[in-house]
Amino acid sequence: MPKYIHEHNGYPKFTWDLNTILNLLTEVSARQGHILGKMQQFGFDFQQEASLNALTEEITKSSEIEGEILNSEQVRSSLAKWLNINLENETAPSHYIEGIVEAVMDAVRNYKEPLTEDRLFGWHATLFPTGRSGIHKIKVAEFRDSDMKVVSNKRYHEIVHYEAPAPEKIQEQMNDFLNWLNIYDNENPLLKAAIAHLWFVIIHPFDDGNGRLTRIITEMSLARAENTYLRFYSMSAQIQKEKKEYYKILEQTTTGNLDITAWLIWFLKCLGRAIESSNEIIDKVLRKAAFWQKNAAEISNKTQRKIINLLFDGFTGNLTSGKIEKIFKISQPTAIRMLNDLVEKDFLEICGAGRSTHYVLAKSSKK
Q1: In sequence order, what are the residues at sequence separation of 6 or more whose Cβ sits closer than 8 angstroms to the Cβ of residue 266?
Q2: Which residues are 360's β-sheet partners?
């Protein structure tokens, strides 16, 4: 009796009930079309900035799902260079973050290009530049040559949630996967993205990094579905919010039969919620654009303009005069004078007192 999906006769010929998912597929496709249509109303610079915000979320949240916290300011700075956006406060990214950003940007900017084995190995190498996962040495830019289990520990007992195909089967299965992924046929592109996500998880071809690579492949598949490299929402950010349900449906599907209807329903619903959440990203950029359209003439000082943009872009932590002094390499009296001038003009508000004094956007500026 087969225990896992890849052990069933006929694998990887997945099946699903199209009638069950048709209405949902139509609804999510409409949401996707709506967000793309909405963004086309705005200029290219606006679209680029919205994409910068979405990709920053995508990269940081994808790593967060695996328990790794990336410096979001470094990720944002690295992405900005790819998108030719000048940031007010650039943070030099580590080589590691630059590598991850390069992999994601290769996936979305070159979404029309075939995903080859060599290209996939290149992405994998960016995740493990030292050849190690933590303290453990792993095979990098090569398929695994050992068994792979997805396990957890509960009260000192190991629980096996899934066993991937044996290593000697990986090459053939990856050939099938890549050949299928690179064919542009009549298959619905959103269904193809959902199946690609699941199929790569099933194979689990690497010693480590399979989850992050799965989500990079998903981003590439969604870019293909939308025929644009610009990203306006983050699937990984939504998966992170629903991580418990995500792992539950993956376990349910990978230990089931070849009918993946339940997985497709979950993926499409999650995608729909990710698109809805994009309104927060877009509204943030809209507020910034509207602010400058209204107030550009009143803030002519370049440093003050950069201070305002820092806050609109989601400055990490509290913005203090001391931080302004360091960021812009000005004296503290000058920093305080500039900040207080923005307060007097009702662009900023003072919060806290004494050493806790910091500055936030005035409520009227957020509208």
Answers
A1: 245, 246, 249
A2: 349
367 pLDDT higher than 60: no
Instruction: Mention the CATH class of domain 5-286.
Output: mainly alpha
> Which amino acid does the sequence have at 53?
N
Q: Are 201 and 254 in contact (CB under 8 A)?
A: yes
Percent of the chain at pLDDT > 90 equals 74
CA atoms within 13 A on the CB side of 167: 11
Tell me which DSSP letter residue 346 carries.
Answer: T
Decide yes or no: CATH 1.10.10.10 for domain 300-366.
Answer: yes
Q: Tell me the pLDDT band of 209, cut-offs 50, 70 and 90.
A: very high
Q: What is the DSSP letter of 165?
A: P
- Of 166, 177, 176, 119, which Cα lies nearest the Cα of 144? 166
CB under 8 Å to 312, separation ≥6 — which residues? Answer: 284, 287, 288, 291, 361
Q: Give phi and psi for 147, each to the nearest 5.
A: -65, 155
CATH 1.10.3290.10 domain extents, the chain: 5-286
- Name the pLDDT band for 98 (thresholds 50, 70, 90): very high
Structure tokens at 266: 């979950």
User: DSSP secondary structure string, 36-104?
Assistant: HHHHHTS-HHHHHHHHHHHHHHHHHHHHHHTT----HHHHHHHHHHHTT---SS--PPPHHHHHHHHHH
Question: At residue 115, what is the residue type?
Answer: L
Report pLDDT for 40: 87
Does the pLDDT of residue 366 top 70, yes or no? no
- Please, where in the chain does CATH 1.10.10.10 lie? 300-366
Of the candidates 208, 233, 199, 270, the residue with the CA atom closest to the CA atom of residue 36: 233
